[in-house]
Amino acid sequence: MSFFLALDAGGTKTDYVLADETRELERVRTGTIKRMRTDAATATKNLEQALSELTAKTGVSMQSMTRTCVGTAGVTVPLVADWLREAITVRVAGELLVVGDVEIALDAAFPGQAGVLVLSGTGSNVAGRTATGELVSAGGWGPALADQGSGHKIGLESLRAIFMAKDEGRSTPLLQAVLDFWELASLDLLVEYANRRPAPDFSSLTELVLRYAEMGDEVAAAVLRREGEDLAYLVKLVMHRLRADSAKKDWVPPIAFAGSIMEKVLPVRQALIAAIQREFPEVRTLDGVVDPIVGAVWRARTGGFS
Predict the structure, then answer these.
(1) pTM of the prediction?
(2) Distance between CA 98 and CA 76 in Å, rounded?
């Protein structure tokens, strides 16, 4: 019997699956093991906790693994990838694959097939895959350079929209809601708080922005609509590149979604789909969101796209 280990290493949490050739044996979750998000000691503690828990629950030793697949954002960053390779190799036997988080999400949506994956949670990224397995991506350059349609960008842009409304002499109830949420007593304190270093967690404002958009606040609604349209622009870039590489030039790649924004913030998803359909009215979009770790399990079992 062969055993496989799959990890989805996110910025705040890491999911783990231990599987055999046909079924998942156990799932566990810990805090992040992504070194851009935590120190080495905490990452090591989280990893060891998960591996011990998997062994305790299944009776399967980590030395019995045939292959491990880790999906994570920042896979090209040495601090992230090098630490993962070193930490896992000394604790888990077998081959190790470290790939991007959008790649395992693509595997979950379109195992061994072409398609587009839109990932939006705290950050965002768009990736597509050709029929021959080549990856094409847009975005994913981090919070200072990209992250369109993400929780981070929604929070940051909502603050910018609040202050633009103030400059224009318009009012928005979102201002007081943000002050209350961050327990700030005045506008000046909000200015100070928003501009501090290190920066606050702008993504924490996402649920608040969504709630006020649903209550009819146009400032909040406009932020969500714009972020969906900005993310759609990246999707269309990827779609055009996939079509250019396809033997069928009229082929329209199907689209799948992953991440908390695509799952829970419906106005962003709706604005994104509407913007894409204006150019590609026949596009097929998958319902719901994919579970990326399912793709990591598939890749651990198969070794990847063939």
Answers:
(1) 0.85
(2) 10
